[in-house]
């Protein structure tokens, strides 16, 4: 990609956020509403709120719990999804159960998980897993089911070993759908990270935002919301870089098909 192309993509990415920030800044410039302070005041309180102790005490523990829960959900969702998508009898047997549990909102499980896992990090990680696993699992099942039967037959004819078939046929073929599920799970994980920290917690971004709200520290509360947005943007950018690297073969194939 040329330098001009990179600049064009950067400009497209920042134009809408910049316009929204400008509108917010102008709309609240003269605000005297206690609950809707000027954006300039919120930005001014950001550094003192988060970069003087709370970065290590609240932000990093939240990100560590998010990472642990997300990776565990990714491992569990892909493993179960491959098994369910590959075995038709297993899929028919488990599909009603999966639909039942998928329909249960993950925040509802927080009180139940607190009874069994306590109020420590284990409970918060399980809450993240309980929500993140479903997009990954269901997309993996559909990705495995959509594999070309000709490729399956070819693998059997060449007597590929089970491990090679799993890695080079099943996982690679289903990887675009797995990536789509993982992208959905990332946003769900951020939401559940905050929700889990609002129940019987002693640190974390969600806990701190609630503390600010209860103490009527409204500008500080808004800085927490801005922080979550910035974290979401950063994690989305990292995910896109990893996805582009892992699915380079797929994007190249799609590009060649469009050009052909």
Distance between the termini: 20 Å
Which spans of ≥5 residues are poorly predicted at pLDDT below 50? none
- Strand % is under 5%
Helix content: over 70%
| SS element count, helices | 11
Average residue pLDDT? 87
Largest sheet: none
Q: Please state the structural category.
A: mainly alpha
Q: What's the number of extended β-strand segments?
A: 0
Sequence of secondary-structure elements: HHHHHHHHHHH
Instruction: Report Rg.
Output: 22 Å
**CA-based shape:** globular
Question: If you had to describe this structure to a student in words, what would you say it looks like?
Answer:
- The protein is mostly helical.
- It contains eleven helices and no strands.
- α3 (54-86) crosses α8 and α6 (121-145) crosses α8 (162-196).
- The radius of gyration is 22 Å and the shape is globular.
- The model has no long low-confidence stretch (mean pLDDT 87).
């Amino acid at each position: 990609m040329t330098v001009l192309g990179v600049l064009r993509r950067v400009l497209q990415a920042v134009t809408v956020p910049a316009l929204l920030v400008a509108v917010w800044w102008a709309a609240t410039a003269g605000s005297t509403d206690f609950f809707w302070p000027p954006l300039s005041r919120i930005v001014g309180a950001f550094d003192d709120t988060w970069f003087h102790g709370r970065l290590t005490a609240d932000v990093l523990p939240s990100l560590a719990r998010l990472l642990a829960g997300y990776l565990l959900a990714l491992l569990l969702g892909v493993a179960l999804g491959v098994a369910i998508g590959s075995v038709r009898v297993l899929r028919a047997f488990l599909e009603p159960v999966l639909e039942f549990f998928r329909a249960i909102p993950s925040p509802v499980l927080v009180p139940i998980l607190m009874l069994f896992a306590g109020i420590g990090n284990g409970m918060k990680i399980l809450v993240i897993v309980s929500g993140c696993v479903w997009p990954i699992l269901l997309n993996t099942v559909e990705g495995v089911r959509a594999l070309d039967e000709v490729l399956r037959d070819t693998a059997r004819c060449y007597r590929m070993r089970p491990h090679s078939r799993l890695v080079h046929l099943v996982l690679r073929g289903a990887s675009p759908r797995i990536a789509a599920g993982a992208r959905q799970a990332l946003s769900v994980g951020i939401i559940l990270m905050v929700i889990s920290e609002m129940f019987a917690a002693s640190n974390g971004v969600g806990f701190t935002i609630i503390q600010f709200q209860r103490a009527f520290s409204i500008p500080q509360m808004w800085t927490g919301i801005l922080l979550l947005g910035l974290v979401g943007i950063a994690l989305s950018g990292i995910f896109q870089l990893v996805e582009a690297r892992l699915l380079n073969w797929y994007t190249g194939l799609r590009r060649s098909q469009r050009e052909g």
